[in-house]
Amino acid sequence: MRPVFAKILNDINHQTFSIKQFSNSNFSTEFHFHHECQINLVLESTGKRIVGDSIDGYEIDEITFLGSDLPHVWHTHADALGPKGSARSITLFFDPDKLISAMKHFVDPERLVSFLQISRRGLVFKKGVTKQLKPLILAISQSEGFKQVALFLTLMDIMIHTKEYVILSSAGFQANYSANDPEKMDNIIRFMFENYHREISLDEISVIANMTKQAFCRYFKNRTQKSFIQFLNEIRISYSCQMINQGDEFLGSTIIIKNNK
């Protein structure tokens, strides 16, 4: 799918990293990418995330690390918001080139460079190391000046040395996008998330995309490296697995069986 290029650090070129605290009715945004690396901590809500060609559920306290130019989107479950009816997260953005350049003055950046290369496929940290990372991210969001920088470097040191993470996108995934790509797929993604529980015909989704069926199939396969049906079924399976894990085995199984006859 064609993501939208997002310029994150345009207004803070003098900084190596930036912190954003998000609180809204949901996380749903346009499928987008940016040069900056992104560290994301979910504080409230659950839902689905697409990272590259990976489709999976996200949950509270999940920490992800997304490398440069990796397309992604989070989509919140409407019935899984926080106590105040909001989705909340803390996100750190940093310019990888600036960080590598700065670290060259102090240490050999080889391990950092290697980690950032792996992160171009997206990482989600396991719960054991998340217990170390979450307090640091919270402390960074509440600090400033030298203390904030020191905490950020401590966070990065743990991340680049741990092996307690899962790589999200497949080894063959290639994010060959440019800043001038059109914003064609956002409506399609939203439509699929909102209607995955029922049959979606190729005729219907082609109308949403404002394309012929043949053109849509070529376009979708070229952008996602998956067919429309394969992509839609992965969304359904992901939702079903999450329902089964939450104890609703009947509904989870029904979604898979009903839509894969």
TrEMBL record:
UniProt GO molecular function: DNA-binding transcription factor activity; sequence-specific DNA binding
Keywords for this protein: DNA-binding, Transcription, Transcription regulation
Presence of the UniProt keyword Transcription regulation in the record: yes
Superkingdom of the source species: Bacteria
Domain HTH araC/xylS-type: 186-261
InterPro entries, sorted: Homeodomain-like_sf, HTH_AraC
PANTHER family linked to this entry: ARAC-FAMILY TRANSCRIPTIONAL REGULATOR (PTHR43280)
Protein name as catalogued: HTH araC/xylS-type domain-containing protein
